[in-house]
TrEMBL record:
A GO BP annotation: aromatic amino acid family biosynthetic process
Species of origin: Thermosediminibacter litoriperuensis
Molecular function GO labels: aldehyde-lyase activity; transferase activity
Protein name stated in the entry: 3-deoxy-D-arabinoheptulosonate-7-phosphate synthase
Superkingdom, natural source: Bacteria
Domain DAHP synthetase I/KDSA per the UniProt entry, residue ranges: 14-258
Length: 263
């Protein structure tokens, strides 16, 4: 279902007024995690002003350690919904369990399936059944074929609104958190009709590499980006080191606007 032979024309996904997979390059941005109402509303206003078209923020966080901040849960979803009302930005947020799918789908415009759950087939099916657009991250050790098969699970439920997201894979290189596999972008574009976006925040793990890899993602033919932005990265409860400060995010958007139409 995901292949170009099945459907030759590119899939364009409409989320509110935003088209993903069309002619425009869509920037999604926001904090790794929703930490408080103030933090999220402030970040939402900032990213909107810079040109982001979708707001990100995790309410259910899949943390490597059980002792790390796990997210605000439903309270976080409510804050995301309030930010959408105030800014008009549609919201993408992660769902980490099958039981939470319906709850998250009540609030979110796009359901995010994280790298750690890329092969949680029950979760993929349940997300597919909501009929909502699904942002499917590449598993950290997944081949492109495995990733596309994960998309098949969602599409098999009759839901073709799948956005693929390259977020870096595990390699032997310790200077970055992951190795951002930008070659996946033209490969996916060649073999699939689905839109592909790039997450240079998780892909590199360091804010300094986010801007150059964003440019590279655009040059490689990605349909957009998802970027972590925090008003005060030093105080972030998750992924501070890879989060852009508002000013750096603004500069990144200015740069991108010179190269491509950002919706
Ligand atoms: C995230 O988007 O904050 C996240 C946890 O991403 P990933 O699943 O790619 O690690
Ligand atoms: Mn994160």
């Amino acid at each position: 279902l995901a292949s170009r032979t099945f459907r030759p024309e590119p899939t364009v996904i409409k989320v509110g007024d935003v088209l993903i997979g069309g002619d425009e390059f869509v920037v999604m941005a926001g904090p790794c995690a929703v930490e408080s109402r103030e933090q999220l509303l402030e970040t939402a206003e900032i990213v909107k002003k810079c040109g982001a078209k979708v707001l990100r923020g995790g309410a259910f966080k899949p943390r490597t350690s059980p002792y790390s901040f796990q997210g605000l849960g439903e309270e976080g979803l409510k804050i995301l919904a309030e930010a959408r009302e105030r800014t008009g930005l549609p919201v993408v947020t992660e769902v980490t369990s099958t039981e939470a799918v319906d709850k998250v789908a009540e609030y979110a415009d796009i359901l995010q399936i994280g790298a750690r759950n890329m092969q949680n087939f029950q979760l993929l099916r349940a997300a597919g059944r909501t009929g909502k657009p699904v942002l499917l991250k590449r598993g950290m050790s997944a081949t492109i074929e495995e990733w596309l098969n994960a998309a098949e699970y969602i599409m098999n439920e009759g839901n073709f609104q799948v956005i693929l997201c390259e977020r870096g894979i595990r390699t032997f290189e310790p200077m970055t958190r992951n190795t951002l596999d930008l070659s996946a972008v033209p490969i996916i574009k060649h073999i699939s009709h689905l839109p592909v976006i790039v997450d240079p925040s998780h892909g590199t793990g360091h804010w300094r590499w986010v801007t150059p890899m964003s440019r590279a993602a655009l040059a490689a033919g990605a349909d957009g980006l998802i970027i972590e932005v925090h008003p005060n990265p030093q105080e972030a409860m998750s992924d501070g080191p890879q989060s852009l400060k508002p000013e750096n995010f603004r500069l990144l958007c200015e740069e991108l606007k010179k190269i491509a139409p950002i919706v």
